[in-house]
Amino acid sequence: RACVAAPPAAFGRRDAPRRDPASFRLFASGSGDPGESADDDGPRDYLAELSWLPPLDPTKEIEEIDPEASPQTMVLPLFPLGSTAYLPHSDHILNIFEPRYRQMYSDILFNGSRRFAVPVSNPETGRLATVAPVFYLEDLKEVSEQTDDAVKYVCSHKVIGRVRINRTLNDKVWGDRTTYLKAVVEPLEDGDDDEDLSTRERTLTDRFASIIENQTKLQEPVRFTENLKATLSAARGEDGLWRMAGLWQSLMQNRLAAKESELSDEIQKLLRQYLESQGQDMRSKVTVQFDSLPAEIRAEFTRLQQQYREESAAMVSATIYPFVLLVQCDTHAERLSVFGEMLEEEEKRLQAKVALQSLFSGGMGGADAKGLDEPPTEA
After folding, report:
1. Rounded Cα distance, 378 and 376, in Å
2. Which of 240, 242, 275, 310 has the fewest Cβ atoms within 10 Å of its own Cβ atom?
């Protein structure tokens, strides 16, 4: 196998939360994927619909909250983790190395709360989301000796709920990194718990199941497994819509990983062809310095990477912002609507793909030209 030492801006893998890896499979596929383009109206801009806090102000005076004097005021640490969407009832492991977050974990263990909020940040402005999932620390392992203090703790968490962030208390520390952010928050609960939404829930579940069937018919390279259909539910609670959203997030993440693998394979193929043309024995590992490659090979590397960045940009967003919007929804009904639109984008993509396959097959009625099941509609 050939590898390139230090190519420019290579193709890093995102460390994203994943659920139920047995619920979908990655299947071998050829190059190209008909039906990937969006419809004329374009996909929904989920990022534009999110709510954000005002920019952090390092000149603002630090506000102290006395818990005894203000027992009704809830203050939580904030641990912004960039552009990663964490869903309620999901489990996550974090490696803690920054001094300020080492201190945060010591504090939440000492005071017994074991809780902190994890807001996503706006990729353009850096502003923090107004609604954040709440992590509960379930287990902490001290690993400083094993890692030569590069990592202090390996921590296991469960997302136990959501909070709305009213205001930050110590903006100054975000810039100087002396300690962690704190904020006044309030629990966010759905406002329609008494409303019967069972009909809409069943329709959404049927649509999800129909997508699984159609992915199988089309032999999608990344698709859910058929046995998942019997376990689906869009009801409230851990095993309902939140689980379905987690499964969908995993699908999006694995499609992105497949795109990264496709780029890696293309680069390896390009390098292998070049080395073979130079008479290199390919039976053993070969390392090549990027700068030593001919200009035309370097240019092709750059072209492949630029193509990947362009094609993957929307895929990266699809793993994050629709799910942050689900977290921000303050009713189950609104969440059903948002998730329904997420499914609609996939339904349109699959319908476009089968239409193209039917066109390419010349209308001969082959296996690849079979029509898809129509998604169920709401009554």
Report:
1. 7
2. 310
Residue 13: band (very low, low, confident or very high) from pLDDT cuts 50, 70, 90 = very low
- What are the angstrom distances between the C-alpha of 3 and each of 151, 184, 195, 282, 300? 29, 50, 58, 11, 15
Q: Is the dihedral of CA 271, 277, 280, 282 positive or negative?
A: positive
Q: Are strands 286-289 and 2-5 parallel, antiparallel or unpaired?
A: parallel
Kindly report, residue by residue over 301-347, the tens digit of the pLDDT: 899 999 898 888 889 999 999 999 999 999 999 999 999 999 999 99
State the pLDDT confidence band at 26, using cuts at 50, 70 and 90: very low
> What pLDDT shows up at residue 357?
81
Quick one: tokens of 371? 């029509």
Q: Which residues contact 37 (CB under 8 A, 6 or more apart)?
A: 352
- 137 in Cβ contact with 160 (< 8 Å): no
The pLDDT value recorded for residue 41 is 62
- The reported pLDDT for the residue numbered 363 is 52
Estimate to the nearest angstrom the gap between the alpha carbon of 24 and the chain centroid. Answer: 16
pLDDT at 151 (0 to 100): 93
Residue 229 has, within 13 A of its CA and on its CB side, a CA count of 15
Question: Rounded to whole angstroms, how far apart are CA atoms 253 and 202?
Answer: 26
